[in-house]
Structures are given as C-alpha cells and as structure tokens.
C-alpha cells in the first residue's frame, strides 16, 4: 500500500474583495513534484471542501507520512490552517505537520514556535518537499532539506537556504483537482476563465512588495508546458479565457511573444500583469509588444502604479518609473483597446497628505482614458521581509507577535498608527472595478 501525503490549501476569507477561489497552485505545484507511482498524494482545498470532509479524510487515509499546509499572511488562512492542524494532531498525533507558503517564507522562526507546527519549509516547495519526504523516510538527513526548520526533541534542525532558481518550477498535474470547480465567468476576459501561474518571482525591486524576498530571481515553466496546459483547458473544459497570476508576465519578452502567438492560435482571451518598465523597455528597444497585444486577444493588463507622487515613486517605492512615464504606458494600453487595471497604495511611511492627494488626482486623470481603466487602492500594510518593513517599524508600527495574530492582517484596512478610517473611506471612493468574479 502506498504511503499518503496530504497537501492542504486552507480557506481564504477575502469574499468582499475576492468573491471566488482559484486553482490552489501553491499546493498543486508541490503535488506535481512528488512521484504518484510511489505515494498517494491528496490535494485538499478548503475553499471547495469543508472541515468535516477534512476530518473524514484523516480518518480514512492510511500510512500518512505528513500533512503540509500552504499559508499566506492575512485572509484568515493561517487561522484556518491551525484549526485543521489541530484535527491532524487529534487523529494522527505522531504525524508531522508541515507549514510552508508566503507567510512562512518571511517569518519561518515565528511559525516554527507554534506548538501545532513540527516543520516549516521556506522557499519554493517544489524543490524542498520531495527531499523532506526522503528525510521522513530516513533516506537522507533533515538538515539536507533546503529551507527546513524542524523540531527534533529539544534541538532545532535547519537546512541551507532554499533559493528560487530559473528551472525550479515543475509541470503541473491537474489530475489532483477537478478543474471544472475553478472555471469562472469573468466579464473582463471570457465566460469560462481559468487562472494560471507560469512563473515565480519578479525582476523588479519595489520596496513594499513581497516579491522582493526572491531577491530579483525569476523561475519559469517552459513554454511548451504552459501551452500544453492551456490546450488541455480548451479541449477538456471548454475554457476560452486564461487569467495569468504571474507577478510580471513580461519579464522575458521572447517567451511572452511566443505565448501570445499560441494564445491567439488557440483563440483564448487572456489577462496578465505587466510592469511600467516592461512597456518603456519595449519602446526603447523598438519591440512590437503593444502591437502584438493589440493584434492578439489580450483583454486586460494589471499594472501596479502605486502612487501619483514622483517623490514617493522614487524615494519610497523605488518603482523605476516616473509618473509621466507611467501615464504614457497606461495611455498606450488604452490606445490598444485593452482594459487597464491599476493598483495604488496610500499610507506609505513618510508619505504626506499632499502626496496622497496627488495619487487620487492621478487616478482621476486615468479615468479619462478610454476604455476607462479599473483602479483599486490599498492602504499600505507593512509586510515582513520587505525593504520598507524596517521603515514602518521605525515609525511606530507594532506587528502581530504570534502566528495566529497574523491571520486577520487585512491590507484593505488601516494597520499602521499613521493611517485611519478616513483614509479607508477615501480608498473605497477611488476603487472602481468592472463587476466580475475573481477580484484582481
């Protein structure tokens, strides 16, 4: 009988801003790295199933090696993970509980201190989790697992850093889930839209952003794997839209151009994220990026603008582009007939009320473009591990002290002493989105 491994994606409670759940790629990527011929790998998405179903799964599964949880900061996911971990301890009290994911990547030591957590894995789970299974089977030592922290009696075992590399990503195996559960009607893309992540990391260095934890490293799936997956979505699930959730889909222009051609061939509408510097770089190198987008089926581009103040963009955010350049990029997107979807942040450390006003005025100017772009405004939330986090601490921000306290960390509400409910109201006033399922 095969040994079992359960990989859990706890429920996210962002219904007000993200009313649907998408394919849980953080656990699906790990599942794809494990040999199915050796293990009974089970992906459990609590956004689609109940706590009762999880308890029933624990009672019926055999030879359970470990249970892995992927957790992000906020959205209630950490709290839900701890509730499910408690169930694991009640039924399989000697089976290790493993935590990984975005929150663990930035606060591994704090996560490790929680009594329900036996092991944490920092960095890309595709690289570390298969080695962890080998260690749990006694084939290698725990310290040979990159990114690990583990409790062994009274000793804390730590592995070498688990860094993102160009070829870290492994092909997905969608047999672990029912893809039909994740097909959504997105009015800005297509009636049967599926989400997809084709790369990890980011080449840029915005000082507030979680992606800086990858140290400007970027890993990607080969084009042929991406195209094969999308073809499967089209033929097996009648998909006609893809929403890419890569941090920046245009890091590698040649790869992007190849994928654009394939998406056009497959008659699939799509949306992706772009950085203003990608557009500026294409213009500087006379690359026909926007022309290809206009000729293809790109329906929507998400771009983080962050601020309408040049000082904030330069000194606080380190965006690498000035306000005039960003507006030029947004106008070029609109001139192509593509819906722009732009995110902003107010309440940065050392940002003045006048500079916040510049951001709101910049949003008004963007609203004059046609098609009128979407705008979503967030309140700055200090994120551990980012360059701007130390600035926030110096200005009096008091972070949560325990793992469970991070669960309800909400970047749609004021979390710092220099932001207030009045700013929350302003944020809502300047958030203007096309009605659709699935948030950004």
Overview of this protein structure:
The chain is α/β, with parallel strands linked by helices and 440 residues long. The protein folds into 2 domains: 156 residues, Response regulator (Rossmann fold, 3-Layer(aba) Sandwich), CATH 3.40.50.2300; 247 residues, TIM Barrel (Alpha-Beta Barrel), CATH 3.20.20.70. It is built from 15 helices and 16 strands. Strands 2-1-3-4-5-6-7 form a 7-stranded mixed sheet, sandwiched between helices. The relative contact order is 0.11. The mean pLDDT is 91.
In terms of structural class, how would the helical and strand content be classed?
Answer: alpha/beta
CATH superfamily of the largest domain: Aldolase class I
CATH topology of the largest domain: TIM Barrel
Number of helices: 15
CATH architecture of the largest domain: Alpha-Beta Barrel
**Average pLDDT over all residues:** 91
How far apart are the first and last residues' alpha carbons, in Å? 43 Å
Classify the beta-strand content into a percent band.
15-25%
**Sequence of strands across the biggest β-sheet:** 2-1-3-4-5-6-7
**What would the principal axes of the Cα set say about the shape?**
globular
């Amino acid at each position: 009988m095969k040994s079992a491994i359960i990989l859990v994606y706890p429920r996210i409670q962002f219904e007000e801003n993200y009313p649907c759940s998408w394919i849980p790629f953080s656990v699906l990527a790990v599942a794809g790295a494990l040999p199915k011929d050796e293990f009974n790998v089970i992906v459990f998405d609590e956004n689609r199933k109940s706590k009762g179903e999880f308890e029933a799964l624990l009672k019926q599964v055999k030879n359970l090696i470990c249970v892995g949880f992927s957790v992000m900061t906020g959205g209630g996911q950490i709290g839900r993970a701890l509730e499910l971990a408690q169930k694991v301890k009640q039924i399989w009290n000697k089976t290790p509980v493993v935590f990984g994911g975005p929150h663990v990547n930035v606060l591994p030591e704090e996560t490790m201190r929680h009594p329900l957590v036996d092991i944490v894995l920092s960095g890309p789970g595709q690289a570390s989790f298969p080695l962890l299974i080998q260690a749990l089977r006694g084939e290698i030592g725990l310290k040979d697992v990159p990114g690990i922290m583990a409790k062994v009696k009274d000793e804390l075992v730590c592995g070498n850093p688990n860094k993102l590399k160009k070829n870290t990503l492994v092909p997905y195996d969608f047999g672990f889930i029912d893809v039909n559960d994740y097909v959504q009607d997105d009015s800005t893309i297509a009636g049967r839209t599926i989400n997809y992540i084709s790369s990890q990391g980011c080449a840029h260095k915005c000082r507030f952003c979680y992606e800086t934890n990858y140290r400007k490293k970027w890993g990607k799936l080969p084009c042929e794997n991406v195209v094969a997956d999308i073809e499967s979505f089209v033929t097996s699930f009648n998909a006609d839209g893809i929403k890419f959730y890569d941090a920046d889909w245009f890091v590698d222009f040649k790869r992007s151009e190849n994928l654009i051609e394939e998406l056009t061939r497959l008659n699939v509408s799509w949306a992706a994220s772009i950085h203003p510097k990608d557009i500026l770089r294409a213009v500087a190198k006379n690359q026909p990026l926007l022309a290809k987008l206009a000729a293809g089926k790109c329906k929507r581009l998400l771009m983080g603008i962050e601020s309408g103040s040049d000082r904030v963009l330069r000194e606080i955010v380190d965006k690498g582009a000035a306000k005039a350049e960003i507006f030029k990029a947004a106008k070029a997107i609109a001139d192509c007939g593509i819906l722009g979807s732009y995110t902003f942040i107010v309440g940065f450390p050392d940002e003045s009320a006048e500079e916040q006003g510049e951001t709101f005025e910049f949003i008004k100017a963007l609203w004059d473009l046609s098609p009128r772009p979407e705008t979503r405004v967030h309140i700055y939330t200090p994120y551990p591990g980012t360059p701007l986090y130390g600035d926030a601490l110096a200005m009096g921000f008091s972070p949560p002290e325990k793992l469970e306290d991070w669960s309800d960390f909400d970047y749609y509400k004021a979390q710092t002493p220099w932001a207030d409910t009045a700013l929350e109201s302003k944020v809502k006033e300047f958030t203007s989105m096309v009605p659709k399922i699935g948030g950004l």
